[in-house]
Amino acid sequence: MEFKGGWIGKILRVDLSKESVKEEDLSKELALEWIGGRGFAIKILWDELEPGIDPLSPENKVVIATGPLTGTITPSSGKLVVATKSPLTGGYGDGNIGTHFAHMLKMSGYDALVLEGRAKKPVYVYITPNGVEIKDASHLWGKSAIETEITLRKDHGKDVGVISIGPAAENLVKFSVVISEYGRAGGRPGIGTVLGSKKVKALVAEGWNDIPVADIEKAFNLAWEARMKLLTHPGYRKWINQGTMMTIEWSQEASVLPTYNFSEGVFDDYANIGGEIMEKEYKLLRKGCFSCPMPCGNLSIAKLGKFMKTWAELDYENVAMLGSNIGIDDMNIVIKLNRLADEWGVDTISLGNAIGFAIELYQKGIISQKQTGGLELKWGDEEVIISLAEKIVKKEDIGKILAEGVKAAAEKIGKEAPKYAIHVKGLEVSAYDCHAAPGMALSYGTSPIGAHHKDAWVISWEVKIGRDKIDKSKVDKVIEFQRIRGGLFEILTVCRLPWIELALDLDYYPKLFNAITGLDYTLENFFFIADKIYNLIRAFWIREYGEWKREYDYPPRKWFEIPLSKGPLAGSKLKKEAYDKLLDWYYEERGWDKNGIPRKSTLEKFGLSYVISTLEERGVTLSE
Amino acid sequence: MAKHIFVDSVRCSGCKICEQVCAKTHFNVLNVSKSAIRIHTEFTQDKMRHTHNVCQQCGPSAPCIRACPENALFWDEEKNRLAIDLNKCVGHFNCVAACPYNAIYRHPALKHPIFCDLCDGDPQCVKWCPMGAIRLVG
Predict the structure, then answer these.
(1) What is the structure's pLDDT at B53?
(2) Partner-chain residue, chosen from B31, B45, B48, that has the shortest CB–CB distance to A299
(3) Contact check, Cβ <8 Å, B32/A147
(4) HEC secondary structure over A86-153
(5) Residues B52, B4: contact at Cβ < 8 Å?
(6) Average pLDDT, stretch A104-111?
(7) CATH no. of B4-137
(8) Does ipTM come in above 0.95?
(9) Where are the domains of chain B?
(10) Which residues in chain A are contacts of B108 at CB distance < 8 A?
């Protein structure tokens, strides 16, 4: 179908086994009813994957999808979604990443890219409007993700868009990500790992085609208005100086800063790794995504000690997880750890989780020095922590077990270990401690990829309105945020931060969408699609697991069982009955049964009747 | 020195909004590869920086003007900037190679070179740059 604007109208399919590429029309249905990004990803994965496949087999596919607003003048629209069946969770996995690859892919002539099969030897895919080539990457295999991009930019030009994987993904570490531009990462649930299993070292796009737009005048006028609102917001200056790093101080204040493997919500030396000190002492340069008027990339440099002059891009999650969560109180070391993670192409959140988990087990005598390969694991000891991280990436000693993720590692280690594994559905929890935040715990519990804050980041709202409160408003807020952040922004494939951080009116998004595509959508239309996507993602998990239990939607055991011992909220822990009440309400609101399985009537309402028979064939009973 | 566009590399964040606005202003399209100002985010193992290329308005004896075999490129005295006579330009693109600032571009779909015309006094990149990194100087 011809689109007036926004979408290019083509999907690129790369079959790595057959070494062939194919161009397909983007169907009207996929565009109009699933929009882009996460919408494309779940629809393609549901339709095309055989149920129950091994995520690391050639049968798995990786979807890389832009959206209709990607690469347009829309503020902060330089993003794309990477998705696959996750080797870490066994369910649906996706992530978004700000990269120049996004607009370059569209300018090359494609809205999305599907990678299938498995290459015989390492390859990279080079995409331009003149054609698509599967090229030899033997010379890049084993190189860091960053060095790979540097080499490819030398070969193909300094303005090409590149996504690459590092040695962690090659070694099939289950929480490997894709990396772009010095440390932008995406795809926490092992999207990098699946690329590694397919022997795809990198993707390169260089485009020069126009991105079609229905009403260019209107689009630029709206973008100008939106830009002025952002630039005149009272929080703008601090935002571009610190970005998400200011959250370190906020989290400390609110007792939600993950500390010592999510044992505490406060960290004595938080100020040493906070936004204030980063801005004053470490930050050298701003890095913005394509089309972003409020750049949050904090390119920072280690100033002191043995890691002096090391560069890394810092944000809240990766600093908290490779800082307070493992007891590191020195920004120079945090920078080094982040740089290593980006070179290895391993997720900083899960890495910080796995390290914290191992240290806690060691301290409690659950694992021995023999198991760690001689390492005496201690909080904040950078030398052993770096050695442990290396062991994870190389899969040596205890690293081999930890590389499977903390859920699988805990099962393997046995004893009391599962109590200290901080994950939901196998995805390690990102950087908000929820001992005293049941609403945020619900958000982690019901996130469509496992414990991640991308969808319902309700923590700041919850702290404001009262964290002990257990009522339906918390469930409503989680669902509202899942619709906006997990739906609207993930399908238009633009950044949520202009809205959540600098209060850009949500109405700008349908307005920009309509100007760019020439269509007439309302926020309600997008929210309906968001709910449909949530149901199909839930169905995907159930199909792959062949069953569902409400326990899968529970937050980590530690938050229920071991209270905080420090800070103003010492003694707090989550209450099972309270969480169950929230979960019941959540299921009810979503139209799911008491086990979290969508009802037939719910699936029918969203036009997903085809899901019913598939789930029934897998032995799942659905309520009316 | 003639007025020209100056980009402050320390302020620049690499967002390429200037490129989008430039292409829109001159070609009415969304296509950064048709922009006359180019921002690059370059990095090596130890360093990252935002660099740029944009016409420095060298003057009547600019290398691009001298390189043009058709005399299509010329110095517009009235506007005090580089200009092109599209009737004369046949697309040798010698100017692209001649520019010491790598600030003249060839696009596969266009017959003529792309370079900065200062938007005839009201440069849109200056207006749109959110970081205030682009200025008209000289």
Answers:
(1) 98
(2) B48
(3) no
(4) CCCCCCEEEEEEECHHHHHHHHHCCCEEEEECCCCCCEEEEEECCEEEEEECCCCCCCCHHHHHHHHH
(5) no
(6) 98
(7) 3.30.70.20
(8) yes
(9) 4-137
(10) 129, 208
